[in-house]
Amino acid sequence: MPLEQVTNHLGESQPIDKEQTRRFIARNVLLDRLPASRATFDVDPDQGLTNLAYEFAIDDMTEVLAGLRARHGQPLSTNLEHRSHNEQIWVWNTGEDLITAVKQDFAGQQSFLLSYRPSRLRPETL
C-alpha cells in the first residue's frame, strides 16, 4: 500500500523526523470504530506499507485481544518483568502478517500497542 493510500485510510500524517523519512505518525485515528491515540507506520517507496502500529487506551485492550483471538485463534504469549517494568506480549503469525500486541506497565504508566508487519516465515513451512 503506497503512502497516499495509507494517508487516505488513516488521515493526515507527518514524518516523525528528518532522519526517519520513511516513518510517519497519524494522531486520533480509528481502527474500525475503536479510537487509537496514534498510529505509527513505515512506508518504503518500492514496497509500500511495511509496518503499522496503533496505540490504544488501556481500557480497549480486552476488546482488541478478544477480536484478534476470535479471528486468528490462540496467540503465543509471554510476560516480561523487571523491577518497575512489566510487559505482557501476545503474538499471532497469520501467514501473511505478524501481529504483536503489547501491554506495558512502566513506573505506573500503562499503554497498549498493536503492531502489524509482513511475516517472513509462513507457519506451514515449519
N to C succession of SSEs: HEEEEHEEEE
Strand content: over 45%
Portion of residues in helices?
10-25%
DSSP, total strands: 8
Low-confidence stretches: none
Number of helical regions: 2
* Average predicted local confidence, pLDDT: 88
Structural class: alpha+beta
What strand order characterises the main sheet?
A: 1-2-3-4-8-7-6-5
Shape verdict: globular
> Measured on Cα atoms, how large is the radius of gyration?
15 Å
Care to describe what's here?
The chain has an eight-stranded antiparallel sheet, covered by helices on one side. The mean pLDDT is 88. It is 16% helix and 53% strand. It has 126 residues and is of the alpha+beta class. The protein is built from two helices and eight strands; from the N terminus they run αββββαββββ. The longest helix has 12 residues, at 61-72. It has helices at residues 3-10, 61-72, and strands spanning 14-15, 23-31, 34-44, 48-56, 76-82, 85-93, 97-106, 109-118. A hairpin with a 2-residue loop joins strand 7 and strand 8 (109-118). The protein is globular, with a radius of gyration of 15 Å.
Q: What descriptors fit this protein?
A:
alpha+beta
Give a brief outline of the structure.
The chain is α+β, with helices and mostly antiparallel strands and 126 residues long.
Q: Secondary-structure map with pairings?
A:
Layout lengths: L2 H8 L3 E2 L7 E9 L2 E11 L3 E9 L4 H12 L3 E7 L2 E9 L3 E10 L2 E10 L8
Antiparallel strand pairs: 1-2, 2-3, 3-4, 4-8, 5-6, 6-7, 7-8
